[in-house]
Design goal:
Elements: E1 12-16, H1 21-32, E2 36-41, H2 44-56, E3 60-65, H3 71-85, E4 90-93, H4 108-136, E5 140-145, H5 158-178, E6 183-190, H6 199-202, H7 205-212, H8 223-233, E7 244-247
Parallel strand pairs: 1-2, 1-4, 2-3, 4-5, 5-6, 6-7
The structure holds NADP nicotinamide-adenine-dinucleotide phosphate.
């Protein structure tokens, strides 16, 4: 374990959407650096398996079943986290879903589902964290997982891209309000990484052709998110607030 700005010993972190993909990765890299990690999502069995892996490696973790679209579930998630490890100082607001449809095919239920999870969920998880940090008089760091699609648009992604652009604006607004309380709020804007969310598309002929046309001509590797995430989450990013950092091999500056 290291000393210095990437040392997370004595920190308590909470990661939503930790039952797969990015969230499981972020939880693991925080635990490897000494954080007490609370992992949250709806699929508890997957969280339990992640906690078992972290504990096996000598880390400390707690699994909490939670649905970020329900504010009472979010409050209960923080209650459980506090009982185990005390006030949560680092939040990774990562839970998210996608709905890939042409705009004319999107129905009300799909629109609500994506906005409830990707925007309302991020708002609920960040706000509850901030209220508790302010009440405890403690500093904190919130990392919202937005997307390159919060900065650019793509066919069949109107609702998802809108939700992620809103996350970028929410990030800036919360950073403005909470900076004076010592709570930093930043966003990561990943490009395309293969996870459960998009594997079928990215492994299809159409998906491969799309990726071949991006500046990096490949998807990202999960490890390529590690340091940008830890930078925003911890002391290394102590003076970074309200930023939305693309980690996308330059996808956000692709030529038109
Ligand atoms: N993969 C990419 O290329 C990419 C690029 C840019 C941004 N992102 C963003 O990165 C984040 C993670 O995505 P991923 O790629 O890792 O996809 P993933 O493997 O599908 O993970 C999504 C996670 O969100 C959780 N989740 C969904 N709805 C939830 C709810 N209502 N309450 C609590 N948890 C919920 C899921 O857990 P349960 O189903 O168990 O609840 C799951 O753990 C998302 O916000 C996504 O938009 C991904």
């Amino acid at each position: 374990m290291e000393n210095g700005p990437f040392d997370f010993r004595s920190k308590t972190a909470l990661v939503t959407g930790a039952s797969s993909g990015f969230g499981a990765h972020f939880a693991t890299v925080l635990a490897e650096r000494g954080a007490n990690v609370v992992v949250a999502a709806r699929r508890k069995q997957r969280l339990d398996a992640l906690v078992a892996r972290i504990v096996d490696e000598g880390g400390k973790a707690l699994a909490v079943e939670a649905d970020v679209t329900r504010v009472e579930s979010v409050a209960a998630m923080y209650d459980a986290a506090e009982s185990a490890f005390g006030t949560v100082g680092i939040v990774c607001n990562n839970a998210g879903i996608v709905e890939s449809k042409l705009a004319v095919d999107v129905d009300e239920a799909g629109f609500d589902r994506v906005l409830d999870t990707n925007l309302k969920g991020v708002w609920a998880v960040a706000s509850e964290a901030a209220r508790r940090l302010i009440a405890a008089g403690r500093p904190g760091s919130i990392v919202n997982i937005a997307s390159v699609l919060g900065l650019r648009v793509s066919v069949s992604q109107s609702v998802y891209a809108t939700s992620k652009a809103a996350v970028v604006q929410l990030t800036r607004s919360l950073a403005l309000e909470w900076g004076r309380k010592g709570i930093r709020v930043n966003a990561l804007c990943p490009g395309y990484f293969v996870t459960d969310m998009n594997r079928a598309y990215l492994e299809s002929r159409h998906g491969k052709a799309y990726i071949a046309g991006t500046p990096a001509r490949r998807c990202g590797e999960l490890d390529e998110l590690t340091w940008p995430f830890l930078l925003l989450a911890g002391e290394a990013g102590a003076f970074i607030n309200g930023a939305a950092i693309p980690v996308d091999g330059g996808h956000h500056v692709a030529g038109i």
